[in-house]
Amino acid sequence: MTPLRAIALDLDGTLLDERMSILPENRQALQAARERGIEVVLVTGRHHRAAQAFHAELALDTPAVCCNGIYLQDYAQDRPLHGDPLAVEQRLALLALLRGAGHHVLAYLDQGFAFEDTEPVLQEVMDWAATLAPALQPRFDRVADLAPVLAQAPRVWKMAVSVQDPAEVAPLAARIGDELGLGTLQTGPLRLDVGRPGHDKSTGLARWLATRGLSAAQVVAFGDNHNDTAMLRAAGHGVAMAGAPQAVREAADEVCGSNEQPSIAAVLQRLQAEGRLG
């Protein structure tokens, strides 16, 4: 069995509890793994600025895989790696489609976010961000009209769409793919991320692994949502959180406990005891 040499971690619903905090036991287990030479990397749907506080808390020296694999962020040099942002015409066509359907839109720009109106999930993130040190706070810009922002922004990594009814997600994803040729990933019951096609967490993680001379077979990956499925399937050992949807649990090699418990620490300690990690 291939030894596991890297740990890949989703953030929301996985490494983070419901208060958007890392449990001390999980933080200590990750630090112990790093001290044994195991690499730790964050693989998230978040913008890099919204993941930076956790990257700093864990004192990681790896880049973060952000926006579901669309780019990697090198925090040490404060620059994106392997980025594939939306073209201007794609941004504007997507905005027109989503406005016509009456959906909320959040644009992920170079250093933060732009939106016309708030919605509950966005407000929760904004409230959390306000508790951070100023240097770690993402930028949130509420604008009267997203169109000129999207037309002028140097980079738009992805656009997140919030819908009112879970039944709207699959038809909307199909329409975006058929009409615009863009890629979609579901990140919650009412949320869809849209970006350039061909990207997911497994492809973003693979780009970083290649720079380290590692393969997906040498990774233990943790996730809890539909956008984690590809990563869990590709990993040498995929671990789904207890609260993950059934399809996500089925994609994993095992299901651990809740993100409200030190479940990640328990898995890592067991894998080490079995001689698989390290």
TrEMBL record:
It comes from the Bacteria. Pfam families: Hydrolase_3. Keywords: Hydrolase. InterPro entries: Cof, HAD-like_sf, HAD-SF_hydro_IIB, HAD_sf. The keyword Magnesium does not apply. One of its GO terms (molecular function) is hydrolase activity. SUPFAM superfamilies: HAD-like. PANTHER family: PHOSPHOSERINE PHOSPHATASE, PYRIDOXAL PHOSPHATE PHOSPHATASE YBHA. This is Cof-type HAD-IIB family hydrolase. It comes from Pseudaquabacterium rugosum.
